[in-house]
Amino acid sequence: MNIATEINREQLAEVAAESIKKINPNSKDGKRWINAIAKAVIEIENNPFMSFDADSHSLLMMSETSNTIYTANGTCQCKAFEKGFPCRHRAACRLIMRLLETTR
Ligand SMILES: [Zn+2]
What pLDDT does residue 41 have? Predict the structure, then answer.
């Protein structure tokens, strides 16, 4: 499915708010995840090169800034993931999965 055109933005905002609420900002990487989720919302709303594969639960997204295609499902290929940090690609993948669960 193509994300940018099919996503309900109100539901996305709700799912993102719920996810952020569950994160303890004082936990390890807590602030980073909150940051990653905020960036993921912007990315989901604005990146036209994003699609979700429900079978493999993976999110394909093309980054216009680095011209790279990332496949996020638990792992990722970006620099943040390499360093062991949260990244917006995985945050976006989780948000979309949760969004699909709540709309089903
Ligand atoms: Zn990533």
Answer: 96
Ligand 1 geometric centre to CA of 102 (Å): 24
**pTM of the predicted model as reported, rounded to 2 decimal places:** 0.89
Length of the chain: 104
Phi/psi at 73 (5° precision)? -150, 60
**E strand spans, 1-104:** 50-53, 58-63, 68-72
What does the block give as tokens for 60?
């394909």
Give the distance (Å) from ligand 1 centre to CA of residue 11. Answer: 23
Q: How far is the CA of 87 from the centre of ligand 1 (A)?
A: 5
Spatial CA neighbour of 40 closest among 22, 24, 56, 17: 17
Token pair 């089903």 is found at: 104
Confidence of residue 6 (pLDDT cuts 50, 70, 90): confident
In terms of C-beta density within 10 A (0-12 exposed, 13-18 middle, 19 or more buried), how is residue 56 classed? Answer: exposed
